[in-house]
Every structure is written in structure tokens, then in C-alpha cells.
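re: that chain from earlier
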Amino acid sequence: KFLWAVTRGQITLSALKTRLRTRFAFPDGTEDEHIVIIRENGKEHVRLVDDEDLACIIWTQGFKVDLPIIVDTSQQPFSSWTFPKIKSLFGLTADSYIDLPRFDGGSADASDYKKVLEHVLEDIAMKHKTCIHVTSANEATRREFISSVLHGVASCYDGDVKVCPEYELSGSHGKGPVDWVIKIGDTIIVLLSSRTPFTFPINESVFEKSLMLEKLKNLFGQIKWVFDRQIESQESLKRVKTENK
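^ sequence. v structure.
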């Protein structure tokens, strides 16, 4: 409930919806057309369609009115979205996420980060001992191993790259936590753990560091390449803005 102090000439649906959006928390991206104001007529709910309807109700009910409000947006929890829904909404041609085009990036040289790689390898080895077998583990357990690599790569940037697990995002179509968000300046990179089997040797019951190291170097280099490109892009954009001043 709230007080809306207006004159008769100021009573409009648009003004009421603006007041509602400043008074209450609505999903990100909510516009006036998403807010439906209705009145109860016996057992029926009738939608208010114009300013005259609103003014009539307010002025005939002694200025104290209960009006149910419906927020009709496409925003829903990420877990509620299915691929067929996403395909229809965005006009995708793929029939499943497996058929989506893949981005083939590069790989940064990881040879200068031997100490970081050793630390990541030790962390993964410890988790291999204390976690259940990865091939039968749930998604949260699998993410433990991936997090070790992400934090290792992020540590190469002196605090400029932040790893945020289970980060809450909200947009026009979805809301909820994602596996990780990588924050680089004002940019965020959303990461989701793969549902396909790991290619790392940690799937084996016996952990072989020598086998793991080469796989780790490869993944480490790929992730660092992505972070490097993002930082270079931001620096390039800053130079352009400076030159245009």
C-alpha cells in the first residue's frame, strides 16, 4: 500500500505505473506495458485500459482503492528455460545446445606461470583425494576442479580479474545464479560448467600429475587468451575515447 497524491487531471495509467516502479521492486527491464492494473468486478478481474477507467474507480470509491497488479514479463529463472523456448525466442537454427556453433579461440603461452600452474596442480590433486569420483560427482563437485583453474589464471592479473562463483544475474528474460562470472573492469563474462565428461585425467581413480600438467597448461592458456583479449579490447576502447576528446 502507498499514498499517491495527485489531482484529478494527473490521474493517468502512465503516471500510476511510474509511481509503482519507483515505489516497488520489479524485475529488470520492466516497462509500462508489462504492468497490468486490474479491478475486481465480483468474481471477474477486469483490466484497466485507459485513464478514464482509472479515474472513475478512484473518484467513485472514496479515494481508497485496492487494485491488483500483474507484472507480465518474459523474465523467469534461468532453470525454467528449455532449449526449444530459447530457440523460438531468439530464432536459433540449432536443435540443441550441442549443435550451436563453437568459438575457436587461441591459447596464451603459459610457460611464464610455472609457479601458478604448480599451485593449481597441487590444489586439484588435493581435491582429487577428498572429493568423490568425478565421473559420478554432481555438478557442484565438478565445479570445484574448474574453479581451481579459473582462480589460477585470474591470479596472473594482480587483482584486475575477479572470479565470482554462483553470481546472481538479472535481465529482461532471465534471472538467477550462474556458475561463474568473470569481472574485468565493467565487463562480465558468464561461464557455465560443461555437462559433457571431463577430458582431464582426474576422471581416473589414480591421479597422475604428469598427465594432468599438459592438459592443465592447455586449458590455462585458453582461458588466459580469453582474458587477455578482453583486457586488450577495453584498453583499445579507452584509447579511442581519449583520442576523440
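The chain has a mean pLDDT of 83.
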